[in-house]
Design brief:
Blueprint lengths: L1 E9 L3 H12 L4 E4 L7 H5 L31 H14 L8 E9 L4 E8 L4 E12 L6 E2 L13 E4 L13 E5 L3 H12 L3 E5 L6 E2 L1 H10 L5 H16 L14 H8 L4 E2 L3 H6 L4 E3 L2 E4 L3 E4 L4 E3 L2 E4 L3 E2 L33 E3 L6 H22 L7
Helix pairs in contact: 1-9, 5-6
Bound molecules: flavin-adenine dinucleotide and 2-acetamido-2-deoxy-beta-D-glucopyranose (NAG) (2 copies).
One 2-acetamido-2-deoxy-beta-D-glucopyranose (NAG) binds next to helix 9.
Pathway: Plant hormone metabolism; auxin biosynthesis
Catalytic activity: indole-3-pyruvate + NADPH + O2 + H(+) = (indol-3-yl)acetate + CO2 + NADP(+) + H2O
Keywords: Auxin biosynthesis, FAD, Flavoprotein, Monooxygenase, NADP, Oxidoreductase
């Protein structure tokens, strides 16, 4: 049995949900498939307890639903989850849950996308045929763990940051956090709050800023060129945190906002880890040479014992695992092959939402642009009359 759809959206995270709402705004029907048993599964299941959104609320809303004035400027995870729950009911979005999309390819004879999804409750494969296909499976599809020498020989616990909930179970343990991005720094901070002894691997220079400075910088970018905003932001950070080089933390030569636009790498927004580093409650260690049964050797020649290792080494897009004809829109890494702002659209009616490395702000923008574009091509073909 084949089900027909005008637009098929894969993934009911913020990107898929926002795209659904925007399509409804244009009266375009869609089918939304989600492999988990709920929408917004990353936020509900794959994030640590103490997470507070890093960006101010005006950069974290989805189309047609700004946050009300009584929402705090920086939302807690619960607050954001509630917002998405309300969004889903307000726009009457009904994802088909327990549908794990396993293959999608373009059928040239029919000029349509053919998508196979496993119904994980019934164990059957369902086939969907669609005019347009929207990839909304996220930038965080799979946790990425680098291939470190000796990783398999380690006898303690190894987790990726997406499995990390809180420091509660690591009390009194020596824990190595690999990766000094936002997740790594916040997890090290959280571990230290739970009386564990965290060390964090820092291999290269990175920017660390206060969230207020990031907020101010993002607002100033509307009026000032990026190099001025960067200069002001770096002066503020130098004043606020002081010179951190004696703790092994160095600033890149390139400014934080320019770096974000150039490479997609976000500055670290400090939640308190820097104070703990200065107090010696979090140790900074250099790159790893090898991992042994219960210890790790570092590039400065030292070796330390650890009970657990948390890899906060980022994520990979998992779209290419199921999207056979990814080449119409994505590169080998499952990320857009076209440069921003043309990233959202491929050929043959293939789109991607939420893969622009611009957080929820980018998600909202992609959803609107994609729905507008689908509306335009349906209107041009006069098809909307028949929907
Ligand atoms: C710890 C953490 C903190 C973050 N903090 C912020 C923040 O403060 N501000 C900000 O703007 N952004 C933040 N982000 C970025 C975050 O990725 C986005 O906010 C948002 O979740 C992206 O939404 P998405 O819908 O694109 O992807 P996701 O939320 O990952 O949703 C993708 C969905 O697709 C489903 N799926 C995947 N594969 C399949 C398949 N084969 N078949 C069917 N369904 C599938 C998944 O189950 C999931 O529900 C954070 C991310 C992390 C990990
Ligand atoms: C859809 O596209 C048509 C044609 O370009 C346009 O007239 C119409 O306003 C669009 N619909 C919406 C809701 O924007
Ligand atoms: C920070 O301190 C180090 C020495 O500890 C020094 O070499 C470096 O120039 C200082 N950086 C700045 C920006 O002052």
């Amino acid at each position: 049995m084949e089900s027909k759809a005008v637009v098929l959206i894969v993934g009911a995270g913020p990107s898929g949900i926002a795209t659904a709402a925007c399509l409804t705004h244009h009266s375009i029907p869609y089918v939304l498939l989600e492999r988990e048993d709920c929408h917004n599964s990353l936020w509900k299941k794959g994030t640590y307890d103490r997470l507070v959104l890093h960006l101010a609320k005006e950069f974290c809303s989805l189309p047609y639903k700004p946050h009300p004035p009584n929402t705090p400027a920086f939302m807690s995870k619960e607050c954001f989850v509630r917002y998405i729950d309300e969004y889903v009911s307000q726009f009457d979005i009904n994802p088909r849950y327990h549908r794990s999309v396993e293959s999608a390819s373009y059928d040239n004879s029919e000029d349509k996308w053919r998508v196979e999804a496993k119904n994980t409750i019934e164990g059957k494969t369902e086939v969907y045929v669609a005019e347009f296909l929207v990839v909304a499976t996220g930038e965080n599809g799979e946790g990425y763990i680098p291939d470190v020498t000796g990783l398999d020989s380690f006898k303690g616990e190894i987790v990726h940051s997406k499995q990390y909930k809180s420091g509660l179970k690591y009390q009194d343990q020596d824990v190595l956090v690999v990766g000094c991005g936002n997740s790594g720094m916040e997890i090290a901070y959280d571990l230290s709050n739970f009386y564990s002894r965290p060390s964090i691997v820092v291999r290269g220079p990175f920017h660390v800023l206060t969230r207020e400075a990031v907020h101010r910088g993002m607002s100033l970018m509307k009026y000032l060129p990026v190099h001025i905003v960067d200069a002001l932001t770096v002066i503020h950070a130098a004043f606020f945190f002081g010179n951190l080089s004696k703790y092994g933390i160095h600033r890149p030569n390139i400014g934080p906002f320019f770096q974000k636009s150039l490479t997609g790498r976000s500055p670290v927004i400090d939640v308190g880890a820097i104070r703990k580093i200065k107090q010696g409650e979090i140790q900074v260690v250099p790159g790893i040479v090898r991992i042994n049964e219960d210890s790790v050797e570092f590039m400065d020649g030292t070796e330390r014992k650890f009970d657990a290792i948390v890899f906060a080494t980022g994520y990979k897009s998992s779209a290419n695992n199921w999207l056979k004809d990814y080449k119409y829109a994505l590169n080998e890494e499952g990320m857009p092959k076209n440069l921003f702002p043309a990233h959202f659209k491929g050929e043959k009616g293939l789109y991607c939402a939420g893969l622009s490395k611009r957080g929820l702000f980018g998600v909202a923008r992609d959803a609107e642009t994609i729905a507008d574009d689908i509306n335009k091509s349906l209107s041009a073909r006069n098809w909307k009359l028949y929907l």
